[in-house]
């Protein structure tokens, strides 16, 4: 791949790395507690399997993106990298969707199921989760752009050769 | 695209259509009610924005897949269809992830947030949601395979020409 095509991908990966690392750290540091009817109520990300999944996926995406930033780009790995990028986009997409669904219940509750909103009691926790979701969303969008750009390059080369 | 390459894609799309239509219908027909402390508790998919999102995405994917089944495949649309397939895979992935996160709370509850499990009260509703999730999962996997197969074809053609 020519240098002019590698620079946009490098910059996109740098942005994705920033977003996934932010999402991971902001979610890990989310913590708040509240006193309610003599019961101490502590909110942290490990309380929910969905939030743990979010942290795990963003950590994996961070590691993957970091490796790819310094990977000697050989065209023979292009096929594999495109598929790994696709898997990473799907995993990030999955983690923010799941996290958003739980966050929505945390914010608004669900009266039909009798689940009360918790953000009024632990606002700092909810702010952190919102921040992590925004960062995760940026990461997912950037991975989508990486995929589009890679596909565009592959397709254009293909069309030029025919 | 040659016929030998169009048949696997046609079969995969047929399978995807079956899965997304099943997921939509099974979720829409999910319904159960329970009597609890003189209060009637009714469970249906419209009670949760996540389940409504799941139905919407699977309905969109059904429509899209149906159109593509009878689309006269011209190579000039290949680029666009590949990107639309990617978007569809991401939307299906997002809808099952969100639905799975809520389903997990419905099944196990979350003691930290004070959210009680509801599947004990409305088992028929939970069975339907589980069925819809399985069908949705199949659809997402099939769309992943469609993407892999399309990428494989594009890449192979590209490698042959170089």
From TrEMBL, chains A, B:
InterPro entries: CASP/CASPL, CASP_dom, CASPL. It is found in: Cell membrane. It is a multi-pass membrane protein. The chain crosses the membrane at residues 12-31, 51-71, 83-106, 132-151. Residues 9-142 form the Casparian strip membrane protein domain. Keywords: Cell membrane, Membrane, Transmembrane, Transmembrane helix. One of its GO terms (cellular component) is plasma membrane. Homodimer and heterodimers. Belongs to the Casparian strip membrane proteins (CASP) family. NCBIfam families: A_tha_TIGR01569 (TIGR01569). This is CASP-like protein. It comes from Sesamum angolense.
